[in-house]
Write a structure and sequence with these properties.
- The structure is a single chain.
- This protein is mainly alpha-helical and 582 residues long.
- The chain has a domain at 1-119: Tetratricopeptide repeat domain (Serine Threonine Protein Phosphatase 5, Tetratricopeptide repeat), CATH 1.25.40.10.
- The protein is 79% helix and 0% strand.
- The chain is built from 33 helices and no strands.
- The chain has helices at residues 2-23, 32-49, 53-66, 71-83, 87-100, 105-117, 121-134, 139-151, 155-169, 173-185, 189-202, 206-218, 222-235, 240-252, 256-268, 274-284, 288-293, 295-308, 313-325, 329-342, 347-359, 363-373, 381-393, 397-414, 417-433, 437-450, 455-467, 474-487, 492-504, 508-520, 527-539, 543-559, 563-580.
- Helix 32 packs antiparallel against helix 33.
- The protein starts with a helix and ends with a helix.
């Protein structure tokens, strides 16, 4: 607004001066220098309004060549410098203009603003203080002083300036909030509360009421806090801080019925900054017990938030993540698909969707999405890996090998050994599934050449030699498996492999010891490991204990929802019981 006023002031001033020069021949002599200065200045102003800044600058320089003390030319130079982000030059030119015409309010006001841009807080404060005395009716001067004193923690001066502002503008939100924040910063909470109460009595404002609610909640005056939140909502039923405060009050009271009653309108309010919503949710997520008890209510709140902020990626990500974890995978997928409609070419949005599909084991959808998306993001190995894993799980082994071979190629080009080892390992696994062990082992050798201690590769290779390679060397398998145990002695997967190879070699006592170790570190929940341990115990003729672990294996398989494995185990147990009687 200041710039516009000045533009009018300069233009009218120039026209008026030219007009007066033409009309009053006897009063003022029109010199060629004066005429040339004004001509160039009018041309500069015209170029400035057309955003021809270089041309405007040249005209200003020409004007100053005829009159080096033309304040309007210096001021226009300051404006041009700001447009070109040359704030140091803007300060120099604006100060020159203000020094030449000390009566011009706009010169001084803009110089103070430029001081702030250049982080010259002391210069800005000193200038505003002078202006507050020279222009006692200019409320914006006092507003700027309040901001400066607040930033420099000079709170006692805030009170004085706020009082002076109220004499000009009457009771107002700016002065009230300045005093409230100053009292709060000084920890003078009774005075801060009284400041808001006095202002609210004169001019009711939901902002004051919501803040009074917050202050009283901090002082554990829940009843009074609730009163103020209700007053704020009486003024405005959608006032976000009051909805938020009231929801939080009920949450702290463990009154969750009312908590969700106010949380959901807060989440549904489209005027509320989405970041405020997601920040609050992150706090709630720290309470795992609350989330487990109110899983479905929170799921509803998440869907409400996502619907209110369909184009906010953070809201969508958090909502989808929660809904997926809560078992609402279809709703989570729809939210992420909606996110893709808004941001189809944003990489993180696409990879988030692929990550979700992977975790949800939606292999067909993941494979199809990968087919259509990878072309948009060439060279993105994580996308290729997701697609390759989808093909792997769909048993499209040749397609998976082709996809992962692209990852292999890119890894070599980037000299990314970690990714290259992972590619070799997965391709080796795929060749094993195709019953092409020679090719599988070739890739495992490539991986181990880079890192001889790559435990997952050692484990898989050892397992395949021991269980599916007719010409497999159990001693070699045991040697590889032993390395994994030495590297990670408490890894239940590696303990299972090592223990099973020992069992296949007939070393039942040592196999038993390894499985006991595996059971102690989490193997008790794995139906395959429990089955293996039961086999070892059966071989040792510890039948009662063996059947106990087979029963555990059946329960674990049922818990995983694996009907085929459950039936297979039950059939095995029946046969083993017959054998134990002989």
């Amino acid at each position: 607004m200041k710039m516009k006023k000045l533009h009018v002031f300069i233009t009218i001033g120039l026209i008026f001066s030219v007009f007066m020069a033409c009309q009053a021949n006897g009063q003022e002599k029109v010199t060629p220098a004066k005429t040339n200065t004004e001509t160039h200045l009018i041309a500069a102003e015209a170029a400035y309004t057309q955003q021809k800044y270089k041309e405007a600058t040249a005209e200003c320089v020409a004007a100053l060549e005829f009159n080096s003390n033309n304040d309007a030319a210096y001021y226009l130079m300051a404006k041009l410098s700001l447009q070109m982000n040359k704030t140091d030059d803007a300060e120099k030119f604006c100060k020159k203009a203000a020094d030449l015409d000390t009566s011009n309010y706009y010169y001084a006001a803009d110089l103070a603003s430029i001081y702030l841009m250049n982080n010259k807080i002391d210069d800005a404060r000193n200038l505003y203080e002078k202006m507050s005395k020279k222009y006692p009716g200019k409320s914006e001067v006092f507003l700027n002083l309040i901001n400066i004193y607040s930033k420099t923690n000079d709170y006692d001066k805030v009170f004085g300036v706020a009082d002076r502002l109220e004499k000009i503008a009457g009771p107002n939100e700016v002065s009230t909030m300045a005093k409230f924040e100053a009292y709060s910063a000084k920890r003078q909470y009774p005075q801060a509360i009284k400041c808001l109460e006095d202002a609210d009595a004169v001019s009711p404002n939901p902002k004051y009421d919501a803040l009074l609610g917050d202050m009283n909640m901090d002082l554990f005056n829940d009843t009074l806090a609730l009163k103020y939140y209700n007053r704020a909502l009486d003024h405005d039923t959608t006032y976000a801080p009051a909805l938020f405060g009231k929801a939080e009050l009920y949450r702290l009271r463990n009154d969750y019925q009312n908590f969700f009653k106010f949380l959901n309108p807060f989440m549904a309010n489209k005027e509320i900054n989405p970041k405020m919503k997601t920040d609050y949710l992150k706090q709630i997520f720290n309470n795992a017990g609350f989330l487990s008890r109110y899983k479905e209510q929170m799921a509803e709140s998440m869907q409400i938030m996502a619907a209110a902020n369909p184009d906010d990626t953070t809201c969508n990500q958090i909502a989808a993540m929660y809904l997926s974890g809560a078992g609402h995978k279809d709703e989570a997928r729809k939210i992420l698909e909606n996110n893709l409609k808004y941001y189809p070419d944003v990489y993180i949005v696409n990879i988030d969707y692929m990550s979700f599909l992977y975790s949800a084991e939606e292999w067909r959808r993941l494979k199809n999405f990968g087919d259509s998306t990878i072309a948009k993001f060439p060279g993105k190995t994580d996308m290729l890996q997701f697609k390759g894993l989808a093909e792997y799980n769909l048993k499209l082994y040749d397609s998976s090998i082709a996809t992962l071979s692209q990852v292999e190629k890119i890894s070599k080009e980037r000299n990314d050994t970690t990714l290259l080892i992972n590619s070799y390992s997965l391709i080796g696994d795929l060749y094993h599934l195709k019953n092409q062990n020679k090719e599988a082992y070739k890739y495992y050798k490539k991986a181990l050449k880079i890192n001889p201690k790559e435990s997952p590769v050692l484990n898989n290779w050892a397992w395949y030699i021991a269980t599916s390679d007719k010409s497999g060397n159990l001693n070699k398998a045991l040697e590889m498996s032993k390395k994994t145990i030495e590297l990670e002695p408490d890894n239940t997967t590696y303990l299972d492999t090592y223990g099973w190879i020992l069992y296949l070699q007939g070393n039942y006592p040592e196999a038993r010891r390894q499985f006991q170790h595996a059971m102690a570190y989490g193997g008790n929940d794995n139906p395959v490991m429990l089955d293996h341990y039961a086999e070892v115990l059966f071989a040792l003729k510890e039948y009662d204990l063996a059947f106990l672990y087979w029963d555990k294996a059946v329960e674990a398989a049922k818990k995983e929802g694996d009907t085929a494995q459950t039936e297979k185990l039950l059939e095995k147990i029946a046969g083993k019981k017959e054998l134990s009687k002989k």
